[in-house]
Specification:
Largest sheet: 2 strands, antiparallel
Number of domains: 2
Number of helices: 6
Shape: globular
Distance between the termini: 21 Å
């Protein structure tokens, strides 16, 4: 169960979900409701752009989806509260920690001659190429944490 807090800085896709449904601070929503909604939005965008569900998307196409999602959300609330310097610093630190965990896990993977899954490779690429945390999809930190734990045996340090 997620309790909505409009003062919190949400990942853009989740912020679009909150906006679309008009949730207010204190509203409760099951995470599966968001998961179903964002999955439906991906399907709708793919249909509009003549893409199959299994067809890989380029970074430009993913950015196109991101922009479309934000444009089709109701302007009832801002998608992101204004950034303070502290927010930007925390986002930069979080992205740096994710990138550091990936580098550490990659070294262990090389020693083990590990063969990466497509999901791992996609997440690694997205995080390592990211300039801002907001450009990384929600849930990526869980994939990075799982990969880090699997390769190093250590607990992730987000």
């Amino acid at each position: 169960m997620i309790i909505i807090d409009l003062n919190q800085l949400y990942q853009p896709y989740f912020a679009a979900f909150v906006t679309h449904h008009g949730y207010q601070t204190g509203d409760e929503v099951h995470s599966w409701v968001y998961t179903g909604w964002i999955g439906g939005k991906w399907k709708e965008w793919r249909r509009l752009h003549h893409k199959t569900e299994t067809e890989p998307l380029s970074a430009a196409e993913t950015e196109c989806f991101h922009n479309w999602l934000l444009e089709t959300s109701s302007p009832a609330m801002p998608l992101r509260r204004p950034h303070s310097n502290e927010d930007e610093i925390e986002e930069a630190k979080m992205l740096a920690r994710l990138q550091r965990m990936i580098r550490t896990a990659n070294k262990a993977a090389d020693q083990k001659h590990y063969i990466h899954t497509d999901v791992e490779l996609g997440v690694i690429r997205r995080v390592m190429e990211a300039k801002r945390l907001s450009s990384v999809p929600a849930g990526v930190e869980r994939v990075v944490g799982h990969y880090y734990t699997k390769m190093t045996g250590r607990t992730p340090y987000y």
